Amino acid sequence: MIDMSNAAARELAPTGVLRAAINLANFLLVTGAKENGEPTGVSPDLAASIAKALKVEISYVGFNRPGELADAVVDSTWDIGLIAAEPVRAQHIDFTAAYVEIEATYLVAGDSGIQTIKDVDQAGVRIAVAARSAYDLYLTRHLQHAELVRAEGLDESFDLFVCEQLDALAGLKPRLLSDVERIENARILEGRFTAVQQAIGTPAGRPVGFAYLREYVESAKASGLIAELITRHGVKGLSVAPPE
Fold this sequence. Notes:
Blueprint: H1 5-12, E1 17-23, E2 32-33, E3 39-40, H2 42-54, E4 57-63, H3 66-71, E5 80-84, E6 93-95, E7 100-109, H4 117-120, E8 126-130, H5 134-142, E9 147-151, H6 154-163, E10 168-172, H7 173-179, E11 186-188, E12 194-203, H8 207-223, H9 225-232, E13 239-240
Parallel strand pairs: 1-4, 1-5, 8-9, 8-10
Antiparallel strand pairs: 2-3, 5-12, 6-12, 7-10, 7-11, 7-12, 7-13
Helix pairs in contact: 1-8
C-alpha cells in the first residue's frame, strides 16, 4: 500500500477525529456495545483500524436504519460510512469495493407454490421487505412483476409477512435462518437473488481520502484482517468479498 495516510487524514479527518457512520441495525456487522455505548463488531472494528492507520481518533455516529445513514451524507455528519454500496446511494457517496458479502434470499410458507427464486417475480406475488435496505433497492431495480410491500425495519417486515399473509419475505439469509424457526411450516428458498456488498463510503469530493480507503479495503482483505474480524466476533453468514 502506498503511504498516503497524511494526505488522506487531512481530507477524511481534518479535525483529528474520524467520524465513522455505523448502521446499528445490521446484526451481522454490529454485534454488541461497550460499556461506554460504542458499538462493537466487524464494522466498528474495521473503522477503528482505519483511524489507527491514519493516526487519528475514532468517533462513532450510529444510525438505526441504513437509509438514514445514507441520507445524512448531505449534512456532513460523518466522514466514512460503513454501508452497502448501491447505485442510488452513489449519487453523493464514493464507495470502495466490498469488504464482505451477505447473501439475500426469500422465506415463503411451506405450502407455497413458489419453489425457486425465479418463481417469485410473478404478477400477484407480494413481498415483504425492510424499506430502503440494500436488498430493497436491488429488488426495486430488478423485479418486473411482483409487488414490494415495505416496512420500516427487519422486525417490522417479518411482522408484515406474517400478519398480512404475504407471499414472500425478502431478507439476509442469516436473519431468515432465525425467522424460519419462528413460523410453523415455512422454508427458505435455495440460492440467492443477490449478495449485498458491504463497503466503505466517503462523501464525494475527497479524492485522496477515497483512494486511500480503496487501497485499505483491498489490503484488509488480502492480509486476512477481514477474515480475522469475522472470526473474532463469531459471525455466521458473512464472507470476505473477492478482490476488486
